[in-house]
Specification:
By secondary structure, the chain is of the alpha+beta class. The chain has a single domain (24-150), classed as Alpha-Beta Plaits (2-Layer Sandwich). It is built from four helices and five strands; from the N terminus they run βαααββαββ. The chain starts with 23 loop residues before the first strand and ends with a strand. The mean pLDDT is 93.
Amino acid sequence: MKNLTHVDNDGKANMVDVSGKTPNMRTAKAFGEVFVSGELFEKIKNNKIEKGDVLTTAKIAGIQGGKKTSELIPLCHNIFISKLDINLTLNEKNKSVEIVSYAKTNSVTGIEMEALTAVAIAALTVYDMCKAVDKSIRISNIKLLSKTGGKSRDYTLEK
């Protein structure tokens, strides 16, 4: 079994020391989905939500959230983010908002948590902006799609 990196010799939580690592280019892509009712889907699609443009606001919130990851996730390193982007797409068939984030850094540690946090915050923003219309909104399927760089090698989610 692989040694746990975030645990000290006494089994207590511990921030990993990355000071001896060499920076390299790292990327991560994450996904999430927000399922809504048919009525709410049409309101989002036609920009008829009273709070404003749901997709643009969620994109900006997701980027802000990704940048704050080390403040939200204990033991997560604060890293320089070279690129953080989010795309929100309406899926008519599923009545959902699909969210994909892409994050990039030249650092000594990975950027997966930033990509995942960006998706989660964007999804929560969709919920917040739409909850007055329908509280049955469901956030689902948040997952890492891929990552590159680092000691643990590249990863792509198998379909």
